[in-house]
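re: the backbone from monday

yeah here it is again, tokenized this time
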């Protein structure tokens, strides 16, 4: 149930709120990386979602302007979004892939760039993740759904 006033429902989320969520998302990624709680890549994410969807706490779908014309990528996104909605996994679209690459270290061993179009954040093995930054991001996702924005877009702050 969404407990929002008419004013809150009629207005879009403020830039200040978006900046706060962007910073919280940075914190989530930064704390998930050393714990091994990040899955990077559309194919790898699909495998992880298929094997253990209950362990996924957040799905990030990232694009740049040139990706908007990639029909195959858009089909992958549609399927991943549907799966995440069906399994109550929060989803965010991220517009700044360069910043995302800086956060997750966007290069594989051997120098090959990572597929950053889909990034999953999972619970640490055998426990539930209690993180104030993750709570803030999840709260933003919930508020967005109340506004019929099922996949809100976040711009990561420039580093």
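seq for it, each position gets an aa:
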């Amino acid at each position: 149930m969404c407990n929002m006033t008419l004013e809150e429902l009629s207005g879009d989320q403020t830039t200040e709120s978006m900046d706060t969520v962007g910073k919280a998302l940075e914190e989530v990624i930064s704390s998930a990386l050393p714990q091994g709680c990040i899955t990077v890549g559309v194919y790898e994410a699909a495998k992880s979602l298929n094997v253990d969807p209950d362990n996924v706490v957040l799905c990030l779908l990232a694009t740049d302007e040139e990706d908007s014309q990639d029909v195959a990528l858009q089909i992958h996104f549609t399927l991943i979004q549907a799966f995440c909605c069906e399994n109550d996994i929060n989803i965010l679209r991220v517009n700044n892939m360069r910043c995302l690459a800086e956060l997750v270290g966007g290069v594989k061993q051997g120098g090959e760039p990572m597929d950053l179009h889909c990034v999953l954040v999972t619970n640490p093995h055998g426990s539930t993740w209690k993180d104030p930054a993750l709570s803030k991001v999840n709260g933003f996702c919930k508020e967005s759904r109340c506004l019929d924005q099922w996949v809100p877009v976040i711009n990561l702050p420039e580093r």
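Residues 15-32 form the longest helix (18 residues). The radius of gyration is 15 Å.
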